[in-house]
Predict the 3D structure of the following.
Amino acid sequence: MIPRPRHLDEPRLLRWCLIGTALTFLILFLFLPLVVVFTEALRKGLGGYLTAVTDPMALAEIRLTLIVTGVAVPLNVLFGLAASWAIARFEFRGRNLLVTLIDLPFSVSPVISGMVFVLLFGAHGLVGPWLQRHDIRIIFALPGLVLATIFVTFPLVARELIPLMRAQGSDEEEAALTLGASGWQTFFHVSLPKIKWGLIYGIVLCAARATGEFGAVSVVSGHIRGLTTTVPLHVEILYNEYQFAASFAVASLLTLLALATLVAKGVVEWRSGRRIG
């Protein structure tokens, strides 16, 4: 057994304090809220829980959330693949600017991003009058929800793939091209298998964020129940109407999705780590 280096030996008291602090934060800010969510969701029993999550309005908003996620995630995957391929494989003027722009949604409040879309496509926005004349609705309609969701989630896939593709290099792709493979053949048979687990990881994070997005979607939705309200907005509406049990019941669906995301994230990390090992 290799002895532990002396400079890495911490006092036992310090180690227990650090472990205790970490566990305290986990209990207060993770486990306790989870317990509260499911306790409040089941306050009226299993029958009340099922009534809340199968309410026609809740089902309509679940369906809308899935539609928005189903449109935003594939588009972000395409953008992430294209952006990461360009940044990792080519030298071009403005590459650092592109990387900075990709990180923009991380530094801008989702509410502000929603307001930008309102100022652009709203009735009194930059192109709003033209859209009204041609009977095109973006704000307070499905396109606005999709645009807002895409904006806040588009860095997630690219940010997983860029460092991965940079670390892997392009030797295998160059060898495939030298042997006569076309660009598409090289991509599907060489590049894509190499980044498979990183891509799946990015998709999982993107889907989870898209499903739970509140700020940007709240601004552009108009809160039209059954038409432009997603599951997070439905939770807020129920809570403001003092339907606490129903609100927590629907919120528990998002909580279950978050837990499923953590499990999927762990599986992807384990599989990718085993592949590397």
Remarks:
- The mean pLDDT is 87.
